[in-house]
Amino acid sequence: MALPAAxxxxxxxxxxxxxxxxxxxxxxxxxxxxxDPGYAEANLELARLLTASRRPDDAERILRRALxxxxxxxxxxxxxxxxxxxxxxxxxxxxWLQRATExxxxxxxxxxxxxxxxxxxxxxxEAAEKYRAAIARDGGYAAAYGNLGNCLAELGEVADAAAAxxxxxxxxxxxxxxxxxxxxxxxxxxxxxxxxxxxxxxxLANGRIGREHVRTLxxxxxVLAALPAPAAGTxxxxxxxxxxxxxxxxxxxxxxxxxxxxxxxxxxxxxxNRVAIEADYTRNQPGITYFDDFLRPxxxxxxxxxxxxxxxxxxxxYANGYLGAYWEAGFWCPxxxxxxxxxxxxxxxIFKQHRLRKCWAFKYDSRLSGxxxxxxxxxxxxxxWITPDxxxxxxxxxxxxxxxxxxxxDWDFGSYNSDERAMRDFLAKSGAQPVRVPHxxxxxxxxxxxxxxxxxxxxxAEGYENRRVNITLLYGTRNS
Length: 480
What we know:
Layout: H1 5-18, H2 22-35, H3 40-52, H4 56-69, H5 74-86, H6 90-103, H7 108-120, H8 124-137, H9 142-154, H10 158-173, H11 183-186, E1 187-189, H12 190-205, H13 213-226, E2 236-238, H14 241-246, H15 274-283, E3 288-291, H16 297-309, E4 323-326, H17 334-346, H18 348-351, E5 356-363, E6 380-385, E7 400-406, H19 413-417, H20 420-430, E8 434-437, E9 444-448, E10 451-455, E11 469-475
Antiparallel strand pairs: 1-2, 3-9, 4-5, 5-11, 6-9, 6-11, 7-8, 7-10
Helix pairs in contact: 1-2, 2-3, 3-4, 4-5, 5-6, 5-7, 6-7, 7-8, 8-9, 9-10, 12-13
């Protein structure tokens, strides 16, 4: 029995795609959709091609026509909803995405798409509910867990946010997860591999991992030795397939962790003069202070062990060779949770109603420089250092430089973080003065997040335990 004409055209389009004749395939897909406006598969493919060709209005027209001509269809409704949201018509987009979940209430991706739209529309509580609905239908949905964590952080539900991020990391990078195939797993840099080699050496020397990992260390050394040179203007290289296979059990995986526990007597030093700290912050407008002996000695030791041993140093994109670890990707433990909440409660005059929104750490290569000038999109910025003072070869430097003028209120995130010339021009014209805070172990710097800052010149001793590590906490949102 012969196929209907629309189905014949669509089947021929598929064959044309396979032979690389994309223009002919496009024509045939459009023909199939025209012959049968209710043919969902052809219309979905045509809308996808039109969207990819930057013709969203035509894609919208095709999806609306198909929905009018066919029975209720999940894919058509969902795709129209996403397209409308991308075209800044969130209210109608959300309505179509809600309709999609009613057409197929078993679809995890349907609830995920709806949640994304609600989050983008500034409705985090509703978005969290829909992310949970997606997870209820697919318990392995890592992206849903990750976005749920972001929503919960926005709502101030820090403990649940961290739990969601932890689950997302386990699904993406845990030992039981499939081999990661994202950019963090398929690319690398010499500074990233040098760090991982030093960490393996440290773990082996201190008996934190078994001697079977001597082979792992040998593999990392061999991969570093064989690594191709990066192209001009970048420090990142593609990790050859044979190298990825050689490192598959550990590279870009959370394969070893130390989860530092909360401390029964508290994490913050009992000697902190909280009244003086708040008064200094207020006096140094628009808000800067720093102080020493932030953590109890046992809390500092545990946090340092957490950062030395755990293999969550995934991010290596930074041109200056430092590595990043984020709470969205494993950088979280009971002790950090305790620290972030105790700090907020200890200094209410600074933190007010603000809750933790972001948490990360950077670890530096002693041979390279630090973070360039930027500001962070938050209300209050916290930075503290955990590397021993003996590692710092210049006691007057190695910390942070902060300028004492707030960024213009109309600057966006990109201006805050990438246009260094504009930042320096603004600071020069506004008469801003730098505040230099030298590095000290267990020193905390607290400042208004609207202030531009950069890593001061660093000169640290060689050796894994001497690498400079700073931890950043962001509280609240800008202008809140």
